[in-house]
Amino acid sequence: MNTAVVVGAQGVIGRYIVERLSGLPDWKVVGLSRRRGEDRGNVRHIAVDLLDRPAAAAKLAELREATHIFYAAFQPSAGAASGYAANIDPNRDMLVNAVSAVDAVAPGLQRVVLVTGTKYYGTHLGPYPTPARETDARHAGPNFYFDQIDWLTAFQHGKRWNWTELRPQTLCGFAPGTAMSIVPVIAVYAALRKAQGLPLSFPGTAWNTIYQVTESAHFADAAYWAATEPRCANQAYNITNGDYFRWSRLWPRLAEVFDMPAAGPEPMSLVEAMGGQGALWDALVAKHGLQPLRFDEVVAWPFGDYVFGCNWDVMSSVTKSRQHGFHAVVDSEEMFVRLLRRFRAGKIVP
Ligand SMILES: NC(=O)c1ccc[n+]([C@@H]2O[C@H](COP(=O)([O-])OP(=O)(O)OC[C@H]3O[C@@H](n4cnc5c(N)ncnc54)[C@H](OP(=O)(O)O)[C@@H]3O)[C@@H](O)[C@H]2O)c1
Known about the structure:
Layout: E1 2-7, H1 14-22, E2 27-33, E3 43-47, H2 53-60, E4 68-71, H3 88-105, E5 111-115, H4 144-156, E6 162-168, E7 171-172, H5 182-195, E8 200-202, E9 210-211, E10 214-215, H6 216-228, E11 235-239, E12 245-246, H7 247-257, E13 262-265, H8 270-274, H9 278-288, H10 295-298, H11 301-308, H12 319-323, H13 332-345
Helix pairs in contact: 1-6, 2-3, 3-4, 5-13, 7-13
This protein binds NADP nicotinamide-adenine-dinucleotide phosphate.
The site of NADP nicotinamide-adenine-dinucleotide phosphate has 28 residues, from loops.
């Protein structure tokens, strides 16, 4: 029997890893986050503030059976999403407090899967060498991934367990109430534009550059592979859908999902243009009987500005993960259509 500790189990990544493992007969799952998740089947949750080191050590002391840690906790900073990577102290400390607490009590710990991302390469800062390979140099300047990796790799020396680092790009899933995702940004932006009789213009400058994303369920498959594949010991991998696209080709298909006309680029700050539309959103929720999610729960506009403002190629090589046994791919265009339809069918947007 394996016991997974999923750190950040309520997040856009963590909740999919919980879901993936919950379907396996030989796994038990313990989810950690400050909010308490729902216990069911082989899944239970511990509500813990990982920034409170003594409290974390006390609450995690029961995790003696842990065999795997999946680390996907995260704290953003205020302001532009491109600045999140510099939010070092809490993101380093949560990892240190979680992993050292489990390591202290779990003699059967085998692997720690650390979720980082392509900001490792400086995707958030400007053009960088593409396709990015795992061996590429780090970007200059602060990035909490570097602090997390440096701490974890040093702490692992001489231990019975090993680590695997996964670098996804722009996770896409159906996780209403978890705002930091590009899918609800597109869905709510489309709903607000349509309500005003406006076409679905592209609200940024990344119209013609190459981009990539990672579907959350696909990433959870990769995390499971990374936790159980012997070749993944002490290795880093890029994990994306395995294809690339340009918003200019994708955009008309997204407009079709919302039965509205598509339009070309209309660069704007979504934070400024959409952030103040809470009253219109509340009216749409009432008119269409939508799920009662607050405007700021359903969408994170800074994340939209970040993604749609990447007017340089964003492209990772996934050759290494394929060579080491992870062969799954996702058609990104089909994925966006499928997920956006789900946001409509689930009454998150009209
Ligand atoms: N989302 C993306 O598109 C994306 C893309 C590439 C890389 N990444 C990376 O993936 C990692 C995970 O990000 P995410 O997007 O999944 O984050 P997220 O959706 O914001 O989830 C963060 C999780 O951490 C938990 N958490 C935050 N502070 C905590 C604390 N003090 N104690 C305990 N739990 C805490 C949150 O639950 P509570 O709030 O209930 O505590 C939540 O479960 C990050 O390193 C991020 O940079 C994300």
